[in-house]
């Protein structure tokens, strides 16, 4: 919205209120006030409900807005994001100190803190000095001073009895202080590994990651991205009795984590394509290594076997596949370990054929995944012949719900001939089980 657009505060307030009030079943989409026009925050002054749902994306260009935010938030559950670009961290630090000391009542209601800066050690010492009793989510990128940060993180955990989500990115030598074990047991969502350009050059080691994971015995969700490893390193197996969702980056070193992780209640497994975020906040795919493709596939298959063996064959019902390094057909070799799959999401795969999901297309007519109910393809390269076979299968008179075919969704997929598959291209959209979407 341009600053030249003058609208009554009542109209602007209604728009903001409509956007910010969460709808049932729809995730809350918070707004950022890092760069907004004067008309925006003049109207927002009269609608305090708006402040409950805004995340402050703090940069050096929005210092005055931070004061307004803290003034209007009152006791709302604040969500504070501090994202500083290189060279500006020192100027931001003094401002953050003044906010925290000026609004102690408001800070008690802080629920989310996200710090992304190349000099996080200049901001971390501030946090233990204030009350963080209501903090539920703590995300930190740019770890680079291990000794200072270990003590500071331990102090923060000791003052956050309701902390449920912790994200640590960077610092290859990071270790949990022994005193942190007592407070980390309440964490249910943990994200570790290099997630940003800030700390990608210094990824966390696998043994260090396992040590941190082992402190969080109550984990329900675990995300591990770019990690480093040493060939002669053989850490002990870590058991997570309550873990239900696991995300692993597709790097060979990161995948080795599965050899040392046991999760008997695991239900959802995601192989995520490695990505980092540059200073322009754009995602960049990690470089693919074609010469390592075969070795990586062997490694992945071994990881799946190890995970299922150590976890006593868990009931994994959902698989999300974002990696372009592994051929989809490799799932066929994993079928004996993943026979309980009900939902599969596949994206970025360059050659998709559905034989492993549709036994009618195989000579031996075997069914590798008998319980598949939902199959989603996103930005994949598809075989046109396979689509013709799918179309014939679903349009056949005997294709009734009793045949138990999975629901299929296509999003932004293309054929090998460059043809884009859309709802118009598929003439069988009327079939209930099949929903082609672009």
UniProtKB/TrEMBL annotation:
Gene3D superfamilies in the cross-refs: 1.20.1280.50, Ribonuclease Inhibitor (3.80.10.10)
Q: Where are the transmembrane segments?
A: none
Checking Pfam families in the record gives: F-box-like
Q: What is this protein called?
A: F-box domain-containing protein
Classification via InterPro entries: F-box_dom, LRR_dom_sf
Q: Which ranges carry the F-box domain?
A: 6-54
Q: Which organism does this sequence originate in?
A: Clathrus columnatus
Q: Which domain of life is it from?
A: Eukaryota
């Amino acid at each position: 919205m341009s600053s030249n657009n003058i609208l009554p505060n009542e109209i602007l307030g209604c728009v903001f209120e409509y956007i910010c009030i969460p709808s049932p079943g729809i995730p809350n989409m918070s707004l950022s006030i890092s760069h907004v026009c004067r008309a925006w925050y003049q109207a927002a002054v009269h609608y305090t409900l708006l402040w409950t749902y805004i995340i402050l994306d703090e940069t050096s260009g929005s210092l005055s807005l931070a004061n307004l935010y803290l003034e209007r938030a009152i006791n709302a559950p604040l969500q504070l994001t501090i994202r500083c670009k290189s060279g500006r961290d020192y100027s931001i630090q003094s401002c953050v100190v003044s906010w925290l000391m000026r609004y102690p009542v408001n800070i008690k209601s802080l629920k989310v803190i996200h710090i992304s800066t190349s000099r996080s050690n200049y901001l971390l010492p501030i946090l233990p000095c204030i009350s963080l009793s209501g903090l539920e989510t703590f995300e930190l990128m740019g770890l680079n001073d291990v000794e200072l940060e270990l003590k500071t993180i331990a102090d923060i955990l000791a003052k956050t009895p309701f902390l449920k989500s912790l994200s640590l990115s960077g610092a290859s030598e990071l270790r949990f202080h022994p005193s942190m074990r007592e407070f980390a047991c309440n964490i249910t969502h943990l994200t570790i590994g290099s997630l940003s350009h800030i700390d990608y050059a210094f990824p966390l080691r696998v043994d260090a990651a396992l040590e941190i994971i082992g402190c969080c015995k109550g984990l329900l969700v675990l995300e591990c991205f770019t990690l480093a490893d040493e060939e002669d390193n053989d850490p002990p197996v870590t058991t997570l009795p309550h873990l239900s969702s696991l995300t692993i980056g597709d790097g060979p070193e990161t995948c080795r984590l599965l050899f040392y992780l046991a999760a008997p209640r695991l239900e959802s497994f995601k192989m995520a394509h490695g990505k980092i975020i540059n200073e322009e906040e754009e995602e960049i795919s990690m470089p693919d290594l074609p010469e390592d493709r075969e070795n990586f596939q062997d490694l992945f298959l071994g990881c799946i076997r190890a995970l299922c063996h150590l976890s006593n064959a868990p009931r994994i019902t959902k698989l999300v596949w974002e990696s372009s390094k592994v051929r989809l057909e490799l799932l066929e070799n994993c079928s004996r370990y993943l026979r309980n799959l009900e939902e599969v999401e596949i994206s970025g795969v360059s050659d998709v054929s559905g034989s492993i999901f549709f036994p009618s297309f195989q000579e031996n007519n075997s069914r590798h995944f008998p319980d598949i109910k939902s199959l989603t393809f996103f930005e994949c390269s598809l075989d046109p012949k396979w689509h013709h076979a799918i179309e014939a299968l679903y349009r056949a008179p005997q294709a009734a719900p009793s045949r138990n075919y999975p629901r299929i969704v296509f999003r932004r997929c293309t054929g090998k001939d460059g043809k884009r598959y859309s709802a118009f291209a598929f003439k069988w959209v009327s079939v209930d089980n099949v929903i082609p979407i672009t």
